[in-house]
Specification:
The chain is 28% helix and 35% strand. By secondary structure, the chain is an alpha+beta fold.
């Protein structure tokens, strides 16, 4: 399936707000601002004129302090998500490939990502794409989201950090 993957731009924010749930306390406009500052790239996957996925790359190293200490110059891919109707069609692989290509262009020699211990499907994909275990086998990714009833929920996922060498 052919999709278009490109960094978010201000002219599409209204489409994203209607179709893609933002992270709690991190609205799309904040992500766009951080992208303009060079801190991250916020990719959107488009099928025709509809967003069907997103992913981020943080360029100044991993978000978690312990992972950052171990891998301070390793960009981190995070918050990858493809609409369930379009999963298992190679779109996530294309998105990860786009992130890796940009990291190579920027001169990075490796890239990493966290994967939940309870997500064997994602783990298998990342291993198939060449990601291997790092020295960080367990850390906690804590985040909040607003449920449909308006309540704020906190999630604490145990993750492992995987890395891939870039040529």
């Amino acid at each position: 399936m052919h999709v278009d993957i490109r960094p978010v731009s201000e002219d599409v924010l209204f489409i994203l707000y209607k179709n893609v749930r933002a992270s709690y306390k991190r609205p799309h406009a904040i992500e766009l601002r951080d992208q303009s500052l060079g801190l991250l790239t916020f990719y959107v996957v488009w099928l025709e004129h509809q967003p069907i996925g997103t992913g981020f790359v943080r360029w100044d190293g991993p978000r978690d302090p312990d992972v950052h200490k171990a891998y301070p110059t390793c960009p981190e891919i995070y918050r990858l998500g493809i609409n369930p109707d379009f999963q298992s069609q190679g779109i996530g692989t294309q998105l990860i490939g786009t992130c890796e290509q940009e990291a190579q262009k920027r001169g990075f020699r490796q890239i990493g990502l966290g994967v939940a211990h309870e997500n064997p499907r994602a783990y298998a994909l990342y291993r198939r794409l060449g990601y291997s275990h790092s020295s960080i086998e367990r850390y906690i990714d804590e985040y909040q989201f607003q449920a449909q009833d308006g309540a704020v929920k906190t999630v604490r996922d145990p993750l492992r950090f995987l890395v891939k060498g870039l040529r």
